[in-house]
Fold this sequence. Notes:
By secondary structure, this protein is of the alpha/beta class. The protein is built from seven helices and twelve strands.
Amino acid sequence: xxxxxxxxxxxxxxxxxxxxxxxxxxxxxxxxxxxxxxxxxxxxxxxxxxxxxxxxxxxxxxxxxxxxxxxxxxxxxxxxxxxxxxxxxxxxxxxxxxxxxxxxxxxxxxxxxxxxxxxxxxxxxxxxxxxxxxxxxxxxxxxxxxxxxxxxxxxxxxxxxxxxxxxxxxxxxxxxxxxxxxxxxxxxxxxxxxxxxxxxxxxxxxxxxxxxxxxxxxxxxxxxxxxxxxxxxxxxxxxxxxxxxxxxxxxxxxxxxxxxxxxxxxxxxxxxxxx
Length: 275
């Protein structure tokens, strides 16, 4: 399969190691592209909910695919999030084409992009972490139940349904939280004269231009690979919000060198030891 050449790709909130992660679909997407730069914008490996008993082959394949891309010349930036915050003790580490950091500023065609996960704006993460962790566990099981319900609906030839999206749309507090998050990111980006502000964290894919009295910025959120299955792609000075579609991406088995398999397994071991 011929891979699409992409200048820059941003993905976030994959939550590898949880039942909700669509690792197989992400692996297909990564197999379809040849990015010059790949930014992993937080919550890629869910260390909060990491289980020794649950890390299937499809999840390991995503890590192997990322390592494979780096070995073939793709520049990888892993920006830490709250679910993989334990990796922050290794921040600013670089190894070949791989860089681990907490935030990132990139020059893109004479414009500045400010990239960070976004948990810094979340009071529940910063001041009541146990509540956030409990909520994350509940969300994981909600997604698992939702998948079973949707399997039944599809068998009955009915449209699938998203519990969490319905909750987010109907609960005023959730809607306000998302709105406040976006407004805060936009205001800070304009104040600091960033042309683009790129976040993850809230699982809400978005691309919106915002202008105020003192300037303007383009707010971008890469969404997630739990419900929305989205990514951001930058090509020829333009941003695109990519939505995964099952029917246009054939599955492709790719042989991964033994050295890269070993490296990915060592990474998982490091995660387990850091808990």
